[in-house]
Amino acid sequence: MKKTILMLAIVLVAFLAIGCTQDGGETPVVEEEAPAEETPEDATEELPVDDTETTEDEEEPAGVVVEVAIEDFKFVPESVTITTGDTVMWTNFDSAPHTATGNEGEFDSGTLQTDESFSFTFEEAGSFDYICTIHPSMEGVVIVE
Ligand SMILES: [Cu+2]
Fold first, then answer.
1. What is the pLDDT of residues 122-137, one digit of tens each?
2. Per-residue model confidence (pLDDT) at position 4
3. How far is the CA of 123 from the centre of ligand 1 (A)?
4. Are 144 and 88 contacting, i.e. CB atoms less than 8 angstroms apart?
5. 17 Cα: distance to centroid of ligand 1 (angstroms)
6. Contact predicate 103/130, CB 8 Å
7. What structural domains does the chain harbor?
8. N or C: which end of the chain has fewer CB within 10 A?
9. Mean pLDDT over each residue of the chain, to the nearest integer
10. b/e for 86-115, b at 16 or more Cβ within 10 A?
11. Where is pLDDT greater, at 58 or 88?
12. Is 82 within 8 Å of 143 (Cβ atoms)?
């Protein structure tokens, strides 16, 4: 008895196996293509550019704009002296990215790529040391009188 049942079971399994392979052969399963890999977003391109620092006070910009170049991993000039209300505009002429970031967080350009600029208007007198956060040995100072 047991042998018969075993034989039946084997035959049954064999039939099922054949059925499966035949079905599989007739209807080839089309594998769905995985969705295209997500392009990792370049964080540097997504940085919000802080162009809105003057929206709060709509007064005419009475001050002058003093330009500071960023080139050869230096702020040129390293020290600028301006008058309250003047604006400093940093422009990165290097191929490397840089920032102009106040040591006390008074201002922060975020990452400046080549030829990008950042302007900040100094409304308070004082001496404002700043660095490039990417290359902290790059130092500059804005003296506001
Ligand atoms: Cu830098």
1. 999 999 999 999 999 9
2. 47
3. 25
4. no
5. 67
6. yes
7. 63-144 (2.60.40.420)
8. N
9. 77
10. bbbbbbbebeebbbbbeeeeebebbbbeee
11. 88
12. yes
b/e map 62-82, b = 16+ CB within 10 Å: ebeebebebeeebbeeeebeb
The answer to whether 64 and 88 are in contact (CB under 8 A) is no
Cβ atoms of 73 and 135 within 8 Å: the answer is: yes
| Torsions phi, psi for 114 (to 5 deg) | -55, 130
User: Looking at residues 81-87, what average pLDDT do you find?
Assistant: 97
Cα 84 to middle of ligand 1, angstroms: 26
How confident is the model at residue 61, as a pLDDT? 53
Helix (H), strand (E) at residue 16:
helix 2-26
Ligand 1 centroid to Cα of residue 116, in Å, is 13
User: What is the 140 CA–ligand 1 centroid distance (Å)?
Assistant: 11
